[in-house]
Amino acid sequence: MDTLSLSLRQRQLIHFLQLRTTYTTGEELAEHLHVSSRTIRHDIIEINDSLKNTSICILSKRRWGYLLKADCEKELKQLLHMTTSFLSKEERVRHLAFRLCLAESNLNLYDFEEEMFVSRTTLEHDLKELRASFTQKDPYIKLIRNKTFISFEENERKKRYILNHLLSDHWNYSSTGTMYSENFYLDAKILRLIIQETNYYLAKYHIIVEDINMIKLNLAIAIMYYRIISNHPVTEEMELTYVDSEILHPANCLLNSLEKKLNCSFGTEDRKDIYLIISCARLLDAKKLTFKTVGQYFDPSILKLTDAYIQQIQQNFHIDFSANEDFYITILQHFRYLSLPLHYFNEISLQVNAVRSNILIELEIAYSVQELAHSYYQRYLNETEILYLAFCIAGALRYYNYTVPKQKTVVMCHLNLPSIWDLKYRILDKFKDYLEITELLPIHMKDTFDFSDTDLILNTSGKEITNDTDCHCISISPFFTIEDQNNVNTHIINQQIHQFYDDSLPSSLDLLENGCWHERIDTQDWKYIIELLFSDFSENRYVSDNYLADVLQRESILSFSLQPSVTIAYSMKASSKTVLSIATLEHRIKINSHKTRIIILAAFRLEERTMLFRLINELLYSGANLNDSRFLKTKEEFLDFFERNLE
C-alpha cells in the first residue's frame, strides 16, 4: 500500500468512514460530500478496487449503508495516515479553485479547514498561492474576501478558463481525462460524445491541431455545456482580436450538431471562445510552406523576427542554419504560434531536468532569442516556450551533425575474431550515424598500427593504446554494456559541441586558475553568492551594471543549474575581458533540484562568446561524475578534479 490512486473526494470518504463505528447511509455521505448517492456508490466501488490486495474494504449493506472494515490494524493505521495527509499544496490549491469556480454563493473558510484537515495558517498560505496562480496572472480573476467568506468575481469567462486549466493539467494520454475530470466534474459519456463530434468535424474540414489544443477545445465545449445547463452562460462581451475566417463554418457546424445531440443552446458569446481556440490552434499545412511561399502565409513581422534570429545565431555562435528550409518553416510556425492570443504547450515537468541536461547547448542558443522576443512580443519567453524552441534547435543541430564526417573508429579486442565482429555491429547498432569503423584489430597491434588517420579507438584491454592527442581512446567491454554506450555517447556529444568553438580560445583550466576565487562561503542565499561574484567583475569594470540583472532574470526564467555539484551562471552581455569568478560553498545549496557545491560566474568578450560552449563541454560534458566533487571545498581541490577529468 505504498500509494493509492484515489481522488480527493474518495480520500475524504475514507476519512469520514474511519471515524464511524456503525453503518453510515449513502444519503448521509452524499450530503457530507455534496454529491449524489450514485456518485458515492461509484466511489466506493473504486476504493474497494484500490484496496483489493489489503485486508481493508468498505462493506455495503442494503438499507444500512457503508462501514469501513479492516482485519489488520497495521494496514489500517497506514491507510489512515495516507488519508489524513491526503492533500499536497498543489492539490489543495486546485481544490480551492474548483470550489470557487463552481460555487453558487460565498464559501466559508472554516468549511475548507474541515474539508482538507488543515490549519488556518496553512489555508492562508494556500490562498496566497491561489492568488499567484489565477489573480496575478491569466485570467486575472479577482478573489473577493469578506471576513471568513471568499468568492471569485462574477466573470463566467474567467471561471471557465480556470476550470479548463485545472481539468487539462496533467492530462492522461493513455486514457481520457485526469483524476479531476474523471471524479469531480465531467460525465464520461458527455465528454466522449464531444470528443467524437470534434474529431469528426475537424477531420471533415481538414483542420489539424496539436494534442494539447484538442484537449483544450474538447474541455472548453464540455465546460460550456455544463455551465449553460446550470444557468451560467457567458454574459461578458468579448471582441475577437484574432479569428481565422476558415474555421468559422466548421466551428458552427460542430456546435450546431452538439446543440441537437445535447439538447442545449450555445449563445453568441459562448461560441466566441470556441472560435478563438480553433483559430489559434489550427496548424498551417506544412506541405504548402517553402522558402518561396512563406510570404503568403506569415505576417511580415514574423518573417523579420525569424530572419533576425537565424542571423543572430550565425553571428554569435558561428552556426549557419539559413539553408535548412525545414528548420526555417518550423521556427516560423513556433514564432507565429507565440504571437497568437492563445498558445498552449504540453508541460514536460516530469522529465524536464533530464531533458534539459541533454540539450544544454541548444538551450543556450534558444535563450539568446530573448531580446528579439521582447522587442516583438513585448515580453520575454517563459521556460516552456524556450524549451520548445530548444527542441527546434536540437533538430537543426542533428541535421547539421549529419553533414559532418563520421569519426573514423578502430575497434581493438583481446577476444577472437567472431567476438570482435559481433562487437562491431553492437557498436554500429547504436552509433552508425556518427562512427565509421575502419579497422578491427587485436590488442597487440597497438604498437605497430598507424593511428594517424584515426579519430577514436574503442578497446577492451584498458591499456593505453596511443600517445596521439588527436586520437581519443575509450575502454569498453567486449559486450558493449549500457555504461560503455553512455561513455561513447558522452564522447560524441563532446565532439559535436567542440566543433562550435575554436581551440584558440582560452582553456577552461586557465580561466579557472586565473579566476577570482571565494572559498568555503557559508550561506544558502543564491542571490548573495551571485552578487558577491559579480562584484569582482564590477570592481574591475569588466561588465556593465545591467549584467547582474540579466543573470538574475535568466535564473528566474531558466535555471542555470542543470547538473549536480557544478553550476555555471553567466550573461551574454559583452565584457571587456573573458573572466570567471568562482565560489565554493561550505554547505551545498539546492538550486533547481540539484545540490550545488561550486558556482562559477562567467563573463565573455564579444569575440569569445563561444567560450561558453567550451566551458559547458569541458566542465559539464567531460564524462566525469560531477557528484564526485560534492565534498570538495577549495580551489586546489577543484582544480585538481577538473584537471584529472580533462586529461
From TrEMBL:
Residues 510-645 form the PTS EIIA type-2 domain. GO terms for biological process: regulation of DNA-templated transcription. Keywords: Repeat. Residues 297-403 form the PRD domain. It holds the Pfam family HTH_11. Signal peptide: none annotated. This is HTH domain protein. It comes from Anaerostipes caccae (strain DSM 14662 / CCUG 47493 / JCM 13470 / NCIMB 13811 / L1-92).
